[in-house]
């Protein structure tokens, strides 16, 4: 299990799988255990049980 935006969820084992499984767009920021993960590393970073992930979306306006 990992913590995703404050809720316990099944560990999908990678950031890229997490994004696909929960239907997030690419227009987001991933924070893993307090550190921002650059998009170029999303397919390389593996998630471990107990990791805390925050996903922040960007909203444009005018």
DSSP strand tally: 5
Main sheet characteristics: 5 strands, mixed
Widest sheet: strand order?
A: 2-1-5-3-4
Q: Write the CATH fold name.
A: Ubiquitin-like (UB roll)
Radius of gyration: 11 Å
The fraction of residues assigned to DSSP E strands is: 25-35%
What would you give as the CATH superfamily? Beta-grasp domain
CATH class value:
Alpha Beta
Number of domains: 1
Strand and helix order: EEHEEE
- Overall 3D geometry? globular
Name of the CATH architecture: Roll
Can you give the mean pLDDT?
Answer: 93
Q: Unreliable runs, pLDDT <50, ≥5 residues? A: none
What is the count of helical runs? 1
The proportion of residues forming helix, as a percent range, comes to: 10-25%
Q: Report the span from N to C terminus.
A: 39 Å
The computed structural class is: mainly beta
Describe the structure.
By secondary structure, the chain is mostly beta strands. The protein has a single domain (2-57), classed as Ubiquitin-like (UB roll) (Roll). It has one helix at residues 15-21, and strands at residues 2-4, 7-9, 28-32, 35-37, 52-57. A 5-stranded mixed β-sheet has the order 2-1-5-3-4, with no helix packed on it. The chain is globular and about 40 Å long.
Condensed summary:
The chain is mainly β.
Entry keywords:
single chain, Ubiquitin-like (UB roll), mainly beta, 1 helix, 62 residues, globular, 5-stranded mixed sheet
């Amino acid at each position: 299990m990992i913590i995703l935006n404050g809720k316990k969820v099944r560990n999908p084992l990678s950031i890229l799988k997490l994004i696909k499984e929960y239907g997030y767009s690419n227009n987001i920021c991933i924070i893993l255990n307090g550190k921002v993960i650059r998009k170029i590393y999303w397919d390389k970073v593996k998630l471990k049980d107990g990791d805390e992930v925050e996903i922040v979306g960007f909203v444009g306006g005018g």
